[in-house]
Design brief:
Distance between the termini: 34 Å
Strand order of the largest sheet: 9-8-7-2-3-6-16
Number of strands: 16
Oligomer: single chain
Helix content: 25-40%
Shape: elongated
Radius of gyration: 25 Å
């Protein structure tokens, strides 16, 4: 085990309780980050099938890869929210919680009797976070929203391809994850404010809004020029040279974001003359003459191997990288030395590997993760230790189909 893996702490959110009604990805990713930061997360799942992702193949000893990826370090209780007893359990847990997180369509939690106004009336310090696809005021508000839908409506798919090719969705589910990431921002800000005011808030985040907010300079290109950015593949819309360049046996990423890096790159190509060539001397000139510069680069780089160029570009201090597969990325020395992959054991599932949370405080990473729970695995523990129910009372709830779990 590396030093970075050994250095762990409870986390700055130790003592914060999260009641998590969210499922699939937007929401579960947020609550997992909160758990990495030390919060206690109780995941409320439907009594029959649990989170839908429990059924997504492939599986490790019966547990879905998808569920494993998004639900470490949480407690699972299985609850029938349509029963009066189940509803009361949810309300009792919300009274003890700092945060309630949900990602249903607008109005669903209100209809269940678990909306913000209802729960806040019993807990004025409650932070209630709603992640939706489009937001309550959107003309799309009542439509189902999934990652690829948000990506399509955000504009990001239109530029995620090579010129002239069909648009592609991003390789990672950033539509879902963006909603989760911004919800964590909002929750942490609201926690800070609550420390001063003692009052909670309703934090609302839409997946589509979040993806549009992440457009960065792409939206500004449109505002400045009146033209939508066009797809450039791995290249950059305004910086040249930047992107994937062919070698004799593969490709190498080069990113010349400054003039110094461009000069270094030209020297690595044995083409120092390009630095003073008026077609390529400055940012604007290189952008205007991209089609002239790229064949020159290709002609030189295809004379040697990827390994040769990675070494040479490093010698000349040019930002560069090989293009790794997911497996290669997880097995690289960086991941090992940074402790990004953690091995844990579940008593039923067995040994498993997880990608660890990336945040460190004073060089200390998150506490060792606990394995994702089986459906309802923590029901007895939560009802007994947090709500004070006796074993006999819990067994009656199990018999009535209100909760599911084992003592």
């Amino acid at each position: 085990m590396s030093d970075s893996q050994q250095k762990t702490a409870a986390g700055p959110l130790a003592g914060i309780k999260v009641l998590d009604f969210s499922r699939i990805l937007s929401g579960p990713y947020a609550s997992m980050v909160l758990a990495d930061l030390g919060a206690e997360v109780i995941k409320v799942e439907p009594i029959l099938s649990g989170d839908e992702t429990r059924n997504f193949p492939p599986f490790q000893n019966g547990m879905s890869h998808y569920y494993i990826a998004l639900n470490r370090s949480k407690k699972s209780i299985s609850l029938d929210l349509k029963s009066p007893e189940g509803m009361q359990i949810a309300k009792d847990l919300a009274q003890q919680s700092d945060i309630v997180l949900e990602n249903f369509r607008p109005g669903v939690m209100d209809r269940l009797g678990l909306g913000y106004d209802t729960l806040r009336s019993e807990n004025e310090q409650l932070l209630y976070c709603s992640i939706t696809g489009f937001g309550a005021n959107s003309p799309h508000g009542d439509k189902p929203a999934f990652d690829i839908v948000a990506q399509a409506l955000s504009g990001v798919m239109s530029v995620n391809c090579e010129p002239g090719q069909a648009p592609n969705k991003l390789g990672i589910p950033l539509g879902d994850m963006a909603g989760s990431i911004f919800s964590v921002f909002g929750l942490l800000a609201a926690l800070h404010e609550r420390n001063a005011t003692g009052r909670g808030k309703h934090i609302e985040v839409a997946m589509l809004d979040s993806l549009i907010a992440l457009q960065g300079y792409l939206s500004q290109i449109y505002f400045v020029t009146g033209q939508s950015p066009q797809p450039v593949g791995t290249q950059h819309p305004s910086i040249v040279p930047y992107g994937s360049f062919p070698t004799s046996d593969g490709h190498v990423i080069v990113a010349c974001l400054t003039e110094r890096f461009w000069h270094n790159f030209a020297r690595s190509l044995d083409r120092e003359d390009l630095i003073k060539d008026p077609r390529f001397a400055l940012y604007d000139a290189r952008l205007a003459n991209r089609d002239a510069l790229h064949p020159i680069i290709h002609a030189r780089m295809t004379q040697d191997t990827t390994a040769y160029w990675l070494q040479r570009l490093e010698e000349f201090d040019v930002p560069s990288a090989p293009i790794l597969s997911i497996g290669e990325a997880l097995e690289q020395d960086h991941a090992t030395k940074q402790g990004l992959v953690e091995e844990i054991t579940h008593p039923e599932i067995g040994d498993m590997k997880l990608v660890r949370g990336p945040i460190r405080f004073d060089g200390v990473g998150p506490a060792k993760a606990t394995a994702p729970s089986m459906l309802g695995e923590n029901t007895f523990d939560v009802l007994s230790n947090q709500l004070g129910l006796q074993t006999a009372d819990i067994q009656k709830l199990v018999a009535k189909g209100v909760v599911k779990g084992l003592p």
